[in-house]
Amino acid sequence: MKRALEGRGDRCFLDMPLQEVITFVAEALGKRERDLVVVTMDRPRHHDIVDQVRRSGAALRMVTDGDIAAAVAPSMPESSCDLYVGMGGSPEGILAAAALKCLGGDMQMRMWFHDDAHRAEVAAQVSASELNQVFRVHELIVGESALFCATGISDSPLLPGCRLVGHRVETHSILMRSRSGTVRRIHAVHDLDRKVVPLRA
């Protein structure tokens, strides 16, 4: 996808109708539009996204949580997701950008506001150009040295969640490094009879 975008000239997907974005992604991946899998969070604010994906004929996968994993998944070779679209929090966007930097992927982000009052609050702190700026991975994660690590709690497109088997807990983690492009996966088994796991009251 990143090479396809570079080869066809830079463009802002955020200003394009989602149908055009889906067509672009399908052509870049050599797939039919109806074979694409588009992921978004199951939130009321994504109602228009859901409608556009359904009209396009692409498959829609809605997740209740784990938007970082969902945003990173399309850049994983073994992933069954092709595109992530949605609005979320800034910390999640930065974490996703760090993972994409390690994978050689890219994303486009712009500030999103809940309402006019929220926009006015942010406008008082940043310049007018920043309000509408489209941020890419290289702008969000500066330099070549970046790390990303995560452990799955619930199942996601990126990692399986924790699994309790008797007195043992199985966890799956991932560790990425941008400088080398190395991706390590860690499958751990924790013996609860020997390992104390503090729980919040």
For the largest beta-sheet, the strand count, sense and barrel status come to: 4 strands, antiparallel
| Broad structural category | alpha/beta
CATH architecture assignment name of the largest domain: 3-Layer(aba) Sandwich
Number of strands: 7
Q: Average pLDDT, to the nearest integer?
A: 89
Please write the CATH class name of the largest domain: Alpha Beta
User: In angstroms, what separates the terminal alpha carbons?
Assistant: 45 Å
What is the count of helical runs? 8
Low-confidence stretches: none
Q: How many separate domains make up the residues?
A: 2
User: Which topology of the largest domain does CATH recognise?
Assistant: D-Maltodextrin-Binding Protein, domain 2
Radius of gyration: 19 Å
- Write down the secondary-structure element order: HHEHEHEHHHHEEEE
Beta-strand percent range: 15-25%
- Overall geometric form: globular
Summarize the entry for a quick read.
The protein has 201 residues and is an alpha/beta fold.
Question: What topology does this entry show?
Answer:
Elements: H1 2-7, H2 18-29, E1 37-41, H3 47-56, E2 59-63, H4 67-72, E3 83-84, H5 90-103, H6 116-123, H7 128-132, H8 137-140, E4 147-151, E5 163-165, E6 168-177, E7 183-191
Parallel strand pairs: 1-2, 1-3
Antiparallel strand pairs: 4-6, 5-6, 6-7
Task: Give a quick set of tags describing it.
single chain, three-stranded parallel β-sheet, 7 strands, 201 residues, four-stranded antiparallel β-sheet, D-Maltodextrin-Binding Protein, domain 2, alpha/beta
